[in-house]
Each structure stands twice: as structure tokens, then as C-alpha cells.
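Researcher: Quick test of sequence recovery. C-alpha cells follow.
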């Protein structure tokens, strides 16, 4: 069906027309604050672990179990909130043409959250105690709760639910804030049939450490909308493999640090692209459920790592620990190539 000839336009065409402006900047800031807060909550374990271990007289195994419990909670939350989002709404406002680039920008909030948490712990821990670090770290999450009512509903979600009038109202608000205009014609829910066809066919230095992931974010921003999601992840996983391989044997401290920084940089870039690619693979009706389940499965790695890999390092089995990571990288690269298609520049599907 020729939508333009019929005087109709889809949501993706509307988002492309209004472009990226002040409205999306506000939504990006709000969503980024959530990513910022989560990064702080993850990083905090690295800084309070030793203090908690000493005060509570924990063994090394019990200290590792603290991280495992946290990731177990994240596993449960990823599944639960994915289901809730698919039933009660979520936010999506980015044009398809540069969605990947802006999602990489969004991911920088994680890095800045990590840097902020490291700085906070560096300043607060020596002067107060680890409980104050926890209290200050909760402030961004509290701010998110206060600002929740300001964030508008996703027009894509509303269209998928058949509520095009409310979706149009939000699109008009986006156009007004961005000082642009919507396409001429009438908004329709989407091109579900076309999508079906497409699917069938195709310490003092602590504050510095998290900032070293920024080059990984820059690399992912360069690659994601140029070579696509799949190849971006494969390239950066390959680079991480190269950086980790020399660590199979003992290396000088300075070289070990540089190699770990390189591996971490590329791992962060891969994680960023995976965070973009995963939701894009699912139709709107189950997008956050699917992404939530994928995230939950990923948390299993976060639960196992402190118990296995960290345990191996603590027992002076560095080679075995590094080999474990190298095997995981190879398996991941193979799995990436098995995905049926890339989502670079594609409109998001609304139906399965």
C-alpha cells in the first residue's frame, strides 16, 4: 500500500520528520539518569566490599556471595519489569536513522555514573563510612521517582495498543518542542504486513578507572550505524580477545594493567551495542519482555563470575580465569553470527 498517496504516515515517518531535538534531549536525560543510577549501584560493590567484609568479618566466599545476591535481584527485576513495560507502557522517541548513535550516547550515562560513584566513594569513605556512600548513591534513584510523572508515554506503544489519538497528541508535542512539523496526512499504526515480509526475507586512581571505558563507547558510536550491530559486536569482542590473550601467562604489572584496560574498553563497547541490538530484535508487543529476559540471562554471568572467575584469581589460577573469559568470547562471537539479520537503519517492528 502506498501510504503517501493515501494521505497516511507511520510513526517511524513521523519521528524521522520531527527529528532529534530538545524533546528527545529531555527524554534522553531522564532515561540516562536511570542508567547513571544503575551504574552507581553496580559499582558500589567494588568500593564497599572490603569495608563490609572487615566490619561483618566475612570470608572471601561470603564477600563474593554479596555480588551474586545483587545480580540475582537484577535477574528477577529484569524479567518482572520487562513484563510490566509491555503491558503498561515504555518510552521510545528516537528516529531510526540515527537510533544506534544516540543509544550509544545514552550508554555514556553508565560510564559517567561509574566515574561519579568512584569519586563519591573516594571522597566519602575515608571521612564517613560505607553506609553514607550507600545513602548518597541512592539520590539519583530518588530523583527518578520524583520526575517519573513528567516523562510522556511512548507513541509507539500507544499505536501498538490502537490508541493513535494519544500517540498523535504526543507527536504534536514533540514537533512543537523541536520547532518542526509532522508529515501531512493521518497517522496510522504501522506496516505490520511489510514487517512480516521483512522478517521472512532477512583507590587514588579509582575515579579514573571507569573513564577508560569512554574509548569503547566512542568506538561503538563509530561502528554501530556504519558496519551494523552484529559486526560491531564481533569486532569489539575480537579486540577484547586480543587484549586478554597475553594474560594467559604472567605479564609485568604495567602491561597487565594496559591489557585489562583495553579488554574492558572493548567489552564496554560490545555491551553498549548489545543493549541497542537486543530490544530492536523484538516487536513492540513483547519488546521489553524479550529484552528483560535477555538481560536476566546476562545477570547469570554476573552471579557466576564472582564465585568462579574471581575465585580462580584469588586461588592464583590466573591462566584458568583468563581462559574461561576467552572461551566465553569465542562462543559469543559465534552466537552473534547466528542472528538472522542486522537492525541497522531498520524501522522497529510492531508485531511478531
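Model:
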Amino acid at each position: 500500500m502506498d501510504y503517501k498517496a493515501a494521505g497516511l504516515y507511520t510513526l517511524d515517518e513521523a519521528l524521522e520528520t520531527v527529528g532529534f531535538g530538545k524533546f528527545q534531549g529531555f527524554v534522553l536525560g531522564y532515561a540516562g539518569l536511570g542508567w547513571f543510577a544503575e551504574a552507581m549501584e553496580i559499582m558500589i560493590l567494588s568500593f564497599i566490599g572490603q569495608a563490609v567484609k572487615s566490619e561483618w568479618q566475612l570470608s572471601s566466599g561470603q564477600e563474593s556471595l554479596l555480588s551474586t545476591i545483587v545480580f540475582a535481584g537484577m535477574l528477577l527485576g529484569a524479567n518482572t519489569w520487562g513484563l510490566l513495560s509491555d503491558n503498561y507502557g515504555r518510552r521510545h522517541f528516537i528516529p531510526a536513522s540515527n537510533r544506534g548513535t544516540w543509544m550509544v550516547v545514552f550508554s555514556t550515562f553508565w560510564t559517567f555514573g561509574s566515574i561519579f560513584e568512584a569519586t563519591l566513594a573516594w571522597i566519602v569513605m575515608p571521612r564517613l563510612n560505607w553506609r553514607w556512600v550507600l545513602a548518597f548513591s541512592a539520590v539519583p534513584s530518588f530523583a527518578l521517582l520524583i520526575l517519573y510523572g513528567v516523562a510522556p508515554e511512548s507513541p509507539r506503544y500507544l499505536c501498538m495498543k490502537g490508541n493513535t489519538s494519544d500517540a498523535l497528541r504526543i507527536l504534536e508535542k514533540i514537533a512543537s518542542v523541536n520547532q518542526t512539523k509532522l508529515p501531512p496526512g493521518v497517522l496510522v499504526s504501522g506496516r505490520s504486513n511489510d514487517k512480516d515480509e521483512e522478517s521472512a526475507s532477512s583507590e587514588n586512581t579509582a575515579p579514573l578507572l571507569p573513564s577508560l571505558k569512554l574509548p569503547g563507547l566512542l568506538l561503538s558510536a563509530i561502528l554501530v550505524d556504519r558496519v551494523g550491530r552484529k559486526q560491531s559486536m564481533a569486532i569489539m569482542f575480537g579486540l577484547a580477545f586480543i587484549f586478554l590473550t597475553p594474560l594467559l601467562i604472567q605479564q609485568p604489572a604495567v602491561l597487565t594493567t594496559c591489557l585489562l584496560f583495553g579488554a574492558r574498553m572493548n567489552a564496554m563497547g560490545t555491551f553498549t551495542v548489545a543493549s541497542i541490538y537486543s530490544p530492536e530484535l523484538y516487536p513492540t508487543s513483547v519488546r521489553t519482555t524479550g529484552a528483560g529476559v535477555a538481560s536476566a540471562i546476562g545477570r547469570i554471568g554476573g552471579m557466576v563470575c564472582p564465585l568462579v572467575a574471581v575465585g580462580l584469581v584469588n586461588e592464583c589460577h590466573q591462566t584458568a580465569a583468563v581462559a574461561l573469559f576467552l572461551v566465553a568470547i569465542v562462543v559469543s562471537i559465534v552466537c552473534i553470527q547466528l542472528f538472522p539479520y542486522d537492525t541497522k537503519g531498520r524501522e522497529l517492528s510492531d508485531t511478531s
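The longest strand covers residues 8-9.
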